[in-house]
Specification:
The structure is a homodimer. A 3-stranded antiparallel β-sheet of chain A has the order 1-3-2. The mean pLDDT of chain A is about 95. In chain A, about 65% of the residues lie in helices and about 10% in strands. In chain A, α1 packs across α5 and α5 packs across α6. By secondary structure, chain A is mainly alpha-helical. In chain A, β2 and β3 form a beta hairpin. Chains A and B meet through α1, α2, α5 and α6 of A and α1, α2, α5 and α6 of B. The first copy, chain A, binds a DNA duplex through α4.
Chain lengths: ~140, ~140
DNA sequence: TCGCTTTTATTGATATGTTAATTATTGCGA
DNA sequence: TCGCAATAATTAACATATCAATAAAAGCGA
């Protein structure tokens, strides 16, 4: 038999997927009917926090693959949420910044988003919440300068 | 400003995504060039563990949405990895079982997959590993009852 | 400067995620 | 039994994930 393999109920990848579903559900609810997707929300959050960023850094911070970012950014630019400008020094590079409209969207949902976080902290306990973030960081592969 | 929102570097959803990337990377490497995707591997794993299952239960155990399962199952049947049979009592339902070919694929990769798990346990420490699974379970939204 | 390599970004092709609409059965109450 | 709500599965439509291939610009050594 395959007693070598752990039960799928204790499988780390599956546990991570299910946890993500649970963590994202309230945010998904918040974004429903706004026309903003989960990934677009992440991009706006990162830009609001760090200001203008080059594409590579933005993709890393928002945990998106580059090709995904390319396509999402095009849509967000068309919707007026971000701007894309060529780096005049290195014309291969591109700088992405949040627009006033994008910032307004963040502002108008900041309270609700913060409440969602409070909800999880309350539900799990502050200590567990912090511990979980620390343990997850151990699995984090990417370089986060 | 948005000091209400946590830094994206301590964002639970982003941490979960990045952790999943880290956890899946070795499995992705293992499956590369086999023609079996990550999701197909999960389905085979669940079927090998539980035997024949109806679609709804399978989707839940493999953490897949129903429409995704429909498409993936069709491909897996065409490849000879699983079988799909109508429930004769309730013709709406469908039973899915692993084939001998599917089981062989599991068997031929069980050792390698088990080694990957050992690697993570070693890297994080057994105690942390178990603790992480317990904490993730707190976020699990649970089966659709 | 020329040619080659590297880096950055886009595009292509396929698979999956996600919600809504649709179809096929079943179950149930008037 | 008829009609309709509920369930299981599929299909549609769009967005994203993922890897491969390509294009464009920059860097670099002969």
């Amino acid at each position: 038999m395959n007693s070598k393999l752990p039960s799928t109920s204790r499988s780390l990848p599956i546990a991570l997927i299910r946890a993500r579903e649970g963590a994202m559900a309230p945010i998904r609810d918040m974004l429903a009917d706004t026309g903003i997707t989960e990934q677009q929300w992440r991009i706006l959050r990162v830009l609001a926090e760090h200001g203008s960023l080059d594409s590579t850094t933005l993709a890393d911070r928002a945990s998106l693959l580059f090709p995904s970012l390319t396509r999402i950014a095009t849509k967000m630019r068309d919707k007026g949420l971000i701007t894309q400008t060529r780096d005049e020094v290195d014309r291969r590079r591109q700088l992405i910044a949040i627009t006033e409209m994008g910032q307004k969207f963040i502002d108008s949902h900041a309270n609700q988003a913060a409440q969602i976080v409070v909800g999880f902290r309350t539900r799990m306990g502050d200590e567990n919440y912090e511990k979980l973030l620390d343990l997850l960081a151990l699995l984090d592969p990417g370089p986060r300068d």
